[in-house]
Amino acid sequence: MIVFPAIDLKGKKCVRLYQGDMNSSHVVAEDVLKTAQKFQSQGAKYIHMVDLDGAIKGEPGNIENVLEVVKNVDIPLQFGGGVRDMGTLDYLIKQGINRVVLGTTALKDVNMVKEAIKKYGKKIAIGIDAKNENVAVDGWKNVSSINYIEMARNMEELGVKTIIFTDISRDGTLKGPNLQQLKKLKNNTKCNIIASGGVKNIQDVKELKELDLYGVIIGKAIYSGDISLKQAIEIGGN
């Protein structure tokens, strides 16, 4: 199981949110590049970055920070937030981002997902963010009538190989991941599943590992010191 340390960007700084509420954001690190380099030095094999400004605006708003990380770290980068057209996607892949996450686009523009998968295959992941089991979009501001399992199955039919699942009610809360929803998702799709949201301690990492997931994204617990990234990576085994 790959452990992805998370860097969420807002106003060109690393921040954390509580349950996706933009008004709850607080800065956890001033220097984005140094944070990424620290994660690499601690053994991370992958970094997960989200452009929160981009998710709201519909176009990346902190791209300079993202590309600085791409150029100055030796591990691959998974990035999402505001990627709503093929031009932006093409640019990000060309700049060296290893995997791009499509969230709002996946629900609103199926044709783009088809084109993206056809062109880039495994370099595309789908972010499914659920509130009361229904998919939320537009930076989590709007909740659709689509169930997260239905969404996952639809994406799998399009050829998607990787899904990042977030239970919004757990995100940034340190209340633990939603193991029940993750298990249900794992049992209903053959896609690689990356868990995101709520991971609070090493026991959570162990329980996610037991679900045989592809990966886990950890943010707040690393910044708060509740989880040692090195130890989490050892448990994940990747």
Note down, in words, how this protein is organized.
The protein has 238 residues and is an alpha/beta fold. It has 11 helices and 12 strands. It has helices at 32-41, 52-57, 63-72, 86-94, 104-108, 110-120, 148-157, 179-188, 202-210, 220-224, 229-236; strands spanning 2-10, 13-18, 21-29, 47-51, 77-80, 99-102, 124-131, 134-137, 142-147, 162-167, 192-196, 215-218. Strands 1-4-5-6-7-10-11-12 form an 8-stranded parallel beta barrel, surrounded by 8 helices. Helix 1 runs parallel beside helix 3 and helix 9 (202-210) packs parallel to helix 11 (229-236).
Output the keywords.
11 helices, alpha/beta, 238 residues
Task: Tell me the layout of helices and strands.
Elements: E1 2-10, E2 13-18, E3 21-29, H1 32-41, E4 47-51, H2 52-57, H3 63-72, E5 77-80, H4 86-94, E6 99-102, H5 104-108, H6 110-120, E7 124-131, E8 134-137, E9 142-147, H7 148-157, E10 162-167, H8 179-188, E11 192-196, H9 202-210, E12 215-218, H10 220-224, H11 229-236
Parallel strand pairs: 1-4, 1-12, 4-5, 5-6, 6-7, 7-10, 10-11, 11-12
Antiparallel strand pairs: 1-2, 2-3, 7-8, 8-9
Q: Provide the low-confidence segments as ranges.
A: none
Order of helices and strands: EEEHEHHEHEHHEEEHEHEHEHH
How many separate helices?
11
Structural class: alpha/beta
Percent of residues in helices = 25-40%
Tell me the strand order in the biggest sheet: 1-4-5-6-7-10-11-12
Gross morphology is globular
Rg value: 16 Å
Major pleated sheet: 8 strands, parallel, barrel
Overall average pLDDT: 92
Number of strands: 12
The quaternary structure here is: single chain
Distance between the termini: 6 Å
Q: Strand fraction band?
A: 25-35%
